[in-house]
Amino acid sequence: MARTGTVKKNGAGQFFLATLLLWLVSVVFEIAFNLRTELLWVIAGGCFFQSVNWVVRSRLSRDPLFVNTSVSLLHSIITSASVVFILLNQCLAKGLEEMFDHSELVGGTWKWAYPALCFSCGYFAYDQWDMLQYRLYSGLIPSILVHHLVLLVCFTLALYRNITINYLILTLICEMHSIFLHVRKLRRMAGIRDSNTALVKLEWVLNWTAFVFARCIPHILITVKLIKDAHKFGRGVEWPLALFGMVGMNILNVGLGMDLFHAFRRERSNRRNQEKSDHQNHVE
After folding, report:
1. Minimal CA–CA distance to 229: which of 167, 155, 153?
2. Would you give the DSSP letter of residue 100?
3. How far apart are CA 277 and CA 273, in angstroms?
């Protein structure tokens, strides 16, 4: 049984590695033969996060999961700051009404939005490679690898055709919540698991707040906007692809919310058991 499971994991890994290599060949072809030098930001993003990986591995820890999570945390921080900067800059320059106009979201490109999306695309390629290299996935069809593959396809197609860039920037607001997901994972890996501490309680408050306001609500609003403006799209694949992607995002958010709730309830249960045990020891 164990041998069969290993073969299946290898099969999944080989498939996703092949798709990653095909993606890389495609990007290099666009840069080298179609002279799309603006796509060099994709390569820069991948190289940057791989370099950070090497630094963390050599200076802090050689644990692949710790290294991967640390780099992911940095990506979430950089992306969140970039998205907030881009949105504030556009809000001041154009105002909210013009900023969220259909033509602006689909055909326009906010200042710094293209390189920011490229940089993030490079990260997802790096992260896919890192998880494949160190087997940081599980299951016959690893959901995290599927997630990254879908993002790479959607991001890259948008970058090639230079459309819906602004829509994709809006979806990256969720990285603000990812910050707290990565912080929680690193905190637990560091052995800080006492849910009675003020730090852990604050982390949960921020985690839930960001989950609602930086992940769920923005993705729901984007989906509603897509449905409302469906008639404004052309006959191409842009609208079906965008809607399919956002529906997938919302489904993933539901699953993530359930996982968060179970983790929160488990930590509360552990805290109550610990308090009960401490009380009994005190009585004795």
Report:
1. 167
2. T
3. 6
Sign of CA dihedral 189, 192, 198, 204: positive
Cα(50)–Cα(125) distance, rounded to whole angstroms? 10
| Per-residue buried b or exposed e for 47-69, using 16+ beta carbons within 10 Å of the residue's own CB | ebbbebbeebbeeeeeebebbbb
Domain total in the chain: 1
Q: Give mean pLDDT in consecutive 10-residue pieces for the chain, a chain of 284 residues.
A: 42 91 97 96 98 96 96 98 96 89 92 97 98 91 89 94 94 96 93 82 94 96 94 85 88 91 84 56 53
CA atoms of 17 and 29, how far apart (whole Å): 18
What residue type is assigned to position 14 of the chain? Q
Please give the C-alpha separations between residue 141 and each of 11, 144, 150, in angstroms, as whole numbers: 10, 9, 13
Q: Domain limits at 164? A: 2-283
CA–CA–CA angle 105, 107, 111 (5° rounding)? 70
pTM of the entire predicted model: 0.89
CB-CB contact of 123 with 172 (8 Å):
no
Residue 218 corresponds to which tokens in the numbers above?
Answer: 């923005």
Quick check: 170 and 82 in contact, CB under 8 A?
Answer: no
- Residue linked to tokens 């896919």: 128
* Cα 42 from Cα 124, distance rounded (Å): 10
Question: What is the phi-psi region of residue 108: left when phi exceeds 0, alpha when psi lies from -120 to 50, beta otherwise?
Answer: beta
Helix crossing, 143-161 with 2-32: angle to 10°?
10
* Residues belonging to the chain: 284
Q: For the chain, how far is it from start to end, CA to CA, in angstroms?
A: 49
